[in-house]
Amino acid sequence: MVDLRSVANRIKNKMKKLLLLTAVVAMVFQGCETDFDVNAPWKDVAVVYGVLDQSDSTHFIKINKAFLGEVDVYTLAQIRDSSEYDPADIDVTIEERDEIGTVINVWPVKYLTDSKKVGGTFYAPDQTLYYFDNILDPSMDYKLVINNNKSGKVVSAITPLVSDFSFQPASYWQNTSQVKVGFYKDNNYQVFSRAKWLTAENGRRYQLTLRFHYREVRLGVPNPDTLDLHIDWQFGSITSVKLSGGQEIGVDIKGEDFYQFVANNIEPASVNNVERYIGTLDFIVDVGGEDLHTYIEVNEPSTGIVQERPEYSNITDANGNYEIGIFSCRHTVSKIGASLSTSGNPYNSKTELCSGQYTYLLGFVNPGTCN
Question: Which has more confidence, 137 or 30?
Fold first, then answer.
């Protein structure tokens, strides 16, 4: 299962790299190998990754280049200039465009040196990140333009933004602190069927994360700290049938699966001699745009006999030739602070967490003191 938020965040924040035989490119997904002709003359190939979200105050873009050399590729990978442009050699801008393509604004993209890159195959700890901090309008399209001053090559890509969307029914989710999630009642596991939302304009791939918060206190220790912890339960992605929005989709969450998930992701209380207290539940939906969805699909592990998969990129030069990477959009909508239900006699969703067949060893105390 592909974790959409992890994929998008890795594009935006860490920009994981992938070695492609004789060319080194800045990749962020686990992708398929690409064959290169080792006897071919060197040419400039831009490697670009960026995912825009109007909720962000700063928008990062990773701009690298593939390279080919006469020495061992692993040696070249340790040379920063091999995979990075000199920022003085490229001009990077963002064009804000309306629905008919008229340029409304042009913003310069700045750069900084990040010195926290983890070492490995590629040069570390420094890397160049490009960014801009303008406010984005979901009704506009955004075009990235990279002008190489040395070669004259121009590389670009354009993306819309994912519009806002809402959980449904709106009246039920209006005050999340009053939402009571029933996973167990009267000796039976229940299905929570209200994790639903309306799709967003320009949103194609959706993923729900259920975040369970809890507190933990170490026993037998003077003045122990109370730790606020959480675990994330990520569900499979859902694809909308249209990009115009307004389609109701969601997940039916099985109560028994919830308790099994908690049991599999929290150690028994005896391991560290702790006592735990039940916290709240957050419902987080991440959505990716059409190009991001296609890129993820193409790079998902192959389950068939044919292992070769087509390449996908929406980064092109002025002649329409494809470069490497993706420039797309994402957005996140959250409902924070729901509670496990106490409806049920004598057992309910909280008592099942404290003493149920899957979680009784986890040290969650009597529901009356868990709130």
Answer: 137
Beta bridge partners of 92: 146
26, burial (CB in 10 Å: exposed 0-12, middle 13-18, buried 19+): buried
In one-letter notation, the amino acid at residue 82 is S
The strand ranges marked E within 21-102 are 23-25, 46-52, 59-65, 90-97
Which tens digit of pLDDT belongs to each residue from 183-218? 999 999 999 999 999 999 999 999 999 999 999 999
Tell me the two tokens of residue 333.
Answer: 């909508």
Query: Distance of CA 210 to CAs 13, 162, 188, 261, 311, Å?
Result: 23, 21, 21, 11, 33
Phi, psi of 57 (to 5 degrees): -90, -25
Alpha helices in the chain, H assignment, sequence order: 4-9, 73-77, 80-83, 170-173, 255-265, 269-272, 290-299, 349-355
> What is the pTM for the complete model shown?
0.84
321's CB contacts (< 8 A; 6+ apart) are: none
